[in-house]
Amino acid sequence: MARVLLLSADLLFGSQVLGQLTAAGHEVEIVGDGERVRERLRGEGAGTAAAGAAPDVLVVDLTDDQLGGSELVSSLRGEPLLPATLGFYSHVDAETRARAESAGFDLVVPRSRMAREGAALVGALAARPA
Q1: Domain count for the chain
Q2: How do residues 15-31 score in pLDDT, each as one tens digit?
Q3: Strands 27-31 and 3-7, how do they pair?
């Protein structure tokens, strides 16, 4: 299955996503800020789940503006180490969705869809050719 790096500061929903993804066999590491994402993509400071291996999918919680997920992905676009990207947002926040799509996310879905289909979405992104 896929190695997943999850950028989320929401302990409750982040834990739900973690549980769903690990139950499906994915290896997941949760980080709480963009700098940690950059470190992991450079192979620095490997966490427990990914243990030194580069992630296959970066999942970003777009509901927390302080995480700057869209800006992070936009700044990493074109980097050879950037994996497939999946962002989730509040279904009522069309501006966040548009910003994420403009930033170049591979897939942007409402939070409710992430809760229902997150494992399958991650699996499909990880299986796509680079």
Answers
A1: 1
A2: 999 999 999 999 999 99
A3: parallel
